[in-house]
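ugh ok so i messed up the first submission bc i forgot one of the chains. this is the corrected input, ALL of the components this time, i swear. 460 residues overall. if the numbers dont match what u have on ur side tell me asap before i send this to the collaborators (the ones from the other lab, u know who)
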Amino acid sequence: MTNPSPDSIIDALSIDCLIFGFKNGRLDILLIKHGEGISEGRWALPGGWITYGESVDEAANRLLKSLTGINNIYMEQLKAFGEPNRYPTKRVVTIAYYALVNEENYSLIPGFTASDAQWFNIHEVPDLPYDHNSILKYGFQQLKHYVRHEPVGFNLLPQKFTLLQLQELYEAILETRLDKSNFRRKLAKMKLLKKSDEKQKDVSHRAAELYQFDKRVYVTLKRNGIDFEL
Amino acid sequence: MTNPSPDSIIDALSIDCLIFGFKNGRLDILLIKHGEGISEGRWALPGGWITYGESVDEAANRLLKSLTGINNIYMEQLKAFGEPNRYPTKRVVTIAYYALVNEENYSLIPGFTASDAQWFNIHEVPDLPYDHNSILKYGFQQLKHYVRHEPVGFNLLPQKFTLLQLQELYEAILETRLDKSNFRRKLAKMKLLKKSDEKQKDVSHRAAELYQFDKRVYVTLKRNGIDFEL
DNA sequence: TTTACTTATAGTCGAAATGACCATATATTG
DNA sequence: CAATATATGGTCATTTCGACTATAAGTAAA
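and heres the new structure output, hopefully the right one now
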């Protein structure tokens, strides 16, 4: 980085969040309805302006919380999008974040400049303002890569979950079917899962064991990367 | 993204480039010496301010060219760094890019605000201004992940190269030794390489076949990702 | 003109992993 | 108790892996 020069500023830097939600074997994306401004009434990715004194990560978390009520989730940076005309009235570069969550763990509370917040099926997304549709497309594509090489997606299930739930998550993201038996074998080899002492309840078939993640193994895999070809 | 508000601006958005260079089995990083400004005389990552009318990608390429003379290389976004105090005099968020090149294909021509430009061994990097040392550390770590899952690094060798050269590249990045025979087997399976009609010359031992990349396979692998555990 | 040395290239082999199946267990519902 | 869910574990031929050995082809030194 070199020195400031008078012609160097841009108008603003924003954040946009891609929050992928998982529920009943389906993958959703979280959108908010703009309650004011030039795109009032339209659905868009939750996001907003970065302010002084907060890091980019902090801005992402603050905005997500104030717009949707979702707090304390781990988001990772996806990419910065900076085409000169991506925003209509001025020059705005946006930094996109993404995360995967279990929808059932969060209730949506629209706030700040959002008049509504809702989950949309990943395949039934409305027309979004700016370049949000292409950001979403890019993010979904990256997600497919990530799940194969990082233990991502392991924080979006309930605390305790069945192996089938985990498999359905992978099937939803990768948009493919997987062999149950082979999927289990791969997981076992990774040693990432621990049996809990509980079993599934209130199902009309044999109850499955509930599993949990082994935090220590998780951290190691996060650092070194995994190879989870399916 | 929501609407503009008066307290939303940051001071500036910059670009920093991590250009990894490969030469004779060693991995280097490209640095420039600041010729003016608050860190005059110090070595730093090539970078500068994004201006109106250019995309973020375009800014990265323009800056790299004007500072170091390196033109027309493919850089990818690494990450945005935005701690509030990373820059001393004002609030600056920077977007880091990275690339891998063959040093011998480029001659360094310092220009613009750079008084010098040079390759530094990745393990002998001086103290850099701002958070450049930690950006470099992060980038090097990511690079190790990337080479195992993308056909990255396949554009930083000469047009035609021997299999040993390719292996040495991977060894330099991953900081490990690899088995020659098994490395070849993995490559063969990928079908990414084509034999050229030439052989190595002027070496004091049996000459090796020179190989080239198969462009069509390369594009496919780039899109779908590869699994190149070594 | 041997011989030593260097790198290239191909092959071996037991162990491990993979993918496509099949079998049995355990629960609920009619 | 039969039908039907899902759970869970096993089989097996094929492929891949990792560590290693063997031979080939060239230069340089003796």
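quick check: The beta strands of chain B are 12-23, 26-34, 43-44, 47-49, 76-81, 92-102, 114-121, 193-199, 209-213. that seems consistent at least. The helical segments of chain B are 56-68, 132-149, 163-174, 180-190, 215-224.
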